[in-house]
Amino acid sequence: MMDPKEKKLIDDLRHTVHMMGELLTLRMLIDRMETYGERVCMVEKKKDVVINYTVKRFREDVFALGTALKSMGLMGKHLGILSENSYQWVVAFFATVCGGGVAVPVDKELSDADISGLFTKADVEAIFFSRSYMETAAYHLEHDKNCKAAICTNKEFDGFLFFDALIEKGKELIAAGDRSYTDISVDKDDLAAIVFTSGTTGANKGVMLSHGNFAQNADGVLETIETQYSSISLLPMNHVYELSCNILTSLYMNCPVFINDSLKKFMDNVRFYKPDAMAIVPLVIDTIYTTIWRTAESTGRAEILKKLLKLSNFLRKHGIDLRHVFFKTIAEKFGGKFPTMSCGGAPTRVEYIKCLSDFGFTIYNGYGLTESSPTVTLNLDAGNFPDCAGYAFPKAKFKINEPDDKGIGEIWIKGDNVTRGYYKDEAATAASFEDGWFKTGDYGRTDELGRLYVVGRKKNLIILDNGKNIFPEEVESFYMEAVDYLHDVVVFEAEKEVGGRKQKIIAGAFYVSPEDVGNKSEEEIREMVEKDILEANKELTAYKRVQDTYITTKEFEINSTRKVIRSKVIERYYAEKK
What we know:
The protein is α/β, with parallel strands linked by helices. About 35% of the residues lie in helices and about 25% in strands.
């Protein structure tokens, strides 16, 4: 439990920062951080040694690295970042953007050729890399002669520049009076980063995000979300959701970020660090939910847990909240508290959000995309309204374009958070904007309170031969709720020969983890799923029912942000049907 005096001090410092006025650039963000002085802003473990980084050290390292880069003629250029989450990652990002350069962070899970291709596409002239990706860095230098340098962030290698040495060089230059970097100013419309989309539904596109885009999101979070006092960084920092909503926002409000050093050690690190908040994706929600119930089943406490939930919910309706007592053993898994979980990136199972909220977790969700830096809407009450994406984020606007008789239409957005377009792709940029509105490619509707409900992706829309429109996401959610042991469902359009001619049908791929169904055999699982789907179909409108199934106990392919890659699943379906 945080000391009340310490809590008040933090709140007062944040208020001081917030009263400085609208945040316009990331340079302004790091300048305002000076208010926090020697306070800790990031924490990470290296070989089980915990390292605390103060605001003062962070700012000094950023300016030193920036000064060294400036002396090498690299400032103002496009600089790539290829690394695990780390303190050095964040320093490299800020040193680049605060000196008028453009950061190009990429997904480290891609192949060497794909990573190199993205760097080339973004006109990267130097790259930061960690030692885990030395071969990838060497590959890119060999294949792109326009890339002049590679800087290793955590080890000294022959033939490569060394991060720590550059910081020392920068400090020496500053001590000698060099202010060439320190005096650089940036504008809110200046390009800060090129962030590539995940490519789950098509080719990666380089989204251009300005200083103002990032600043608007950080300011909006400070304005709308209840103050947190620490967070943990789990998602890849190259993903704009993690970068913008967790890293940048936490630095701005001096919410120390605990950097998770391993996905396998995530829960161990949560217990160790005891964070107040975490930015996560639905897969993490799924994992937490299933782990809680799987543990309860294995220890014979599942029925007791269900009864406690029922009693707790009854008492809460009468103003008595004893969740901290009833579910203390669950909280202990998270360091003795229920951290606030901000969930984004994809739809989340409604019953999972509701249940975790009933245990004591505070869960936020919303709607956003890379092109909006990323937040468009925010739902601060997901526990009670888990299927709602919430209200418009500060200074962000959305509308439903050409709604049908059910109020469903494409979601269009505009605001200070929205990208200017895609890097060196005028055709894609022109196709994405109309009358100043960005066309998201997502379908949604609003309720009488103006809250957004996301229905599905335009690219995934299934149009049957009879003209019926089906949103796969809606059907997927139905099956996930109707057959609760299903781990993942992907619904898509396929063809089937009926009566001597081919016609469009709805196909479904269903992934079941054997651990969730008592380790049954493949054949037993297949028979069980087919039977339960037929039963569930009785509750589903006829034309929305899956007419062909692919059932597997092998996990679906996911990208680095833990989203299912639909195209890969569909490939597996067709391979199975050959």
